[in-house]
Amino acid sequence: MSERIDISVVVPLYNEEESLPELCSWISRVMKEHGFTYEIIMVDDGSSDRSWSVVRQLFETNPHIRGIRFNRNYGKSAALNTGFHASRGQVVISMDADLQDSPDEVPELFKMVTAGGYDLVSGWKRKRHDPIGKTVPSKFFNWVTRKISGIPLHDFNCGLKAYRSEVVKNINIYGEMHRYIPVIAKWRGFSSIGEKVVQHRPRKYGETKFGWQRFVTGFLDLISITFVSKFRQKPMHFFGVLGALSFIFGFFITLWMIGWKVYNNWYLHESVRAVTDQPLFFLALVALIIGVQLFMTGFIAEMLAMISERENKYLVIEKVGLH
């Protein structure tokens, strides 16, 4: 069994060769000042510069450093996920490698998790050193995420976060889902989520990886994770309801049209257009077909969810009196 330590610091990195020595030195100094046992897990996400060589050099002088290298750039989510599952710490801290996150925040984050009882604590960069083209869209993005998820955080995308070990061992993040880790954690039952105002330092080395496409993909990911978190176990509650409403709408429109045709021909003796000649009939027909398709989609998804549930029924994070 691997040794359990106080803190694992997971640092995803991509082309950050200049900042790594200063960052590792800073983290180590903070850990020694507070007497923490620790490890620094550097996950090189396919850097094209000398980042991996720097990690190897740092390892030779600091035994607390561990390195993981990808053969290509898979993205921050993949790097974090790999680092999380390799961690051994009681508390896991994630931070970016560009020195914009301050390691001096680590002791208080550790205390909030261990003594404060939080499952996850997210940093909030209240005062940011970023251009307005990044801060304004970020505020809007966080507001939308806050409203949809119901989690009262101001900065979902802050790279500086602290987690209980059980949290990172029982979540999987992929694609660009790292910005929604609090949402995924809440979905998995880790609902004690806190926030701490943290220092945001100006970028000292390199260039920002920020791009406008992040907001487009970010909102698509938000829709995806919201849908999955709410309807993964009961997809029929989504597809079935929509299908039933669509079918009922189409059925009653068709019934009304036939009834109106019969009433006019038999009782009023008036000539009325054939049902199939009316545009409303085709609308009703489409609604009936869509209703059946949505219902069947929900039925199939329900069966797939049941099969998945048999394979991994429940998340068990603690046992008493059992081995």
Offer a quick outline of the entry:
Helices cover 49% and strands 13% of the residues. The chain contains 10 helices and 7 strands. A 7-stranded mixed sheet has the order 3-2-1-4-6-5-7, sandwiched between helices.
Number of helices: 10
The average pLDDT is 82
What's the CATH H-level superfamily name of the largest domain? Spore Coat Polysaccharide Biosynthesis Protein SpsA, Chain A
Summarize the biggest pleated sheet.
7 strands, mixed
Name the strands of the widest sheet in spatial order: 3-2-1-4-6-5-7
How many separate domains make up the residues? 2
Q: Give, in order, the helices and strands.
A: EHEHEHEHEHEHHEHHH
Computed CA radius of gyration, to the nearest angstrom: 27 Å
CATH topology of the largest domain: Spore Coat Polysaccharide Biosynthesis Protein SpsA, Chain A
Poorly predicted runs are 309-323
Q: Under the CATH scheme, which class of the largest domain?
A: Alpha Beta
Instruction: Assign the CATH architecture of the largest domain.
Output: Alpha-Beta Complex
Number of beta strands: 7
- How large is the share of residues in beta strands? 5-15%
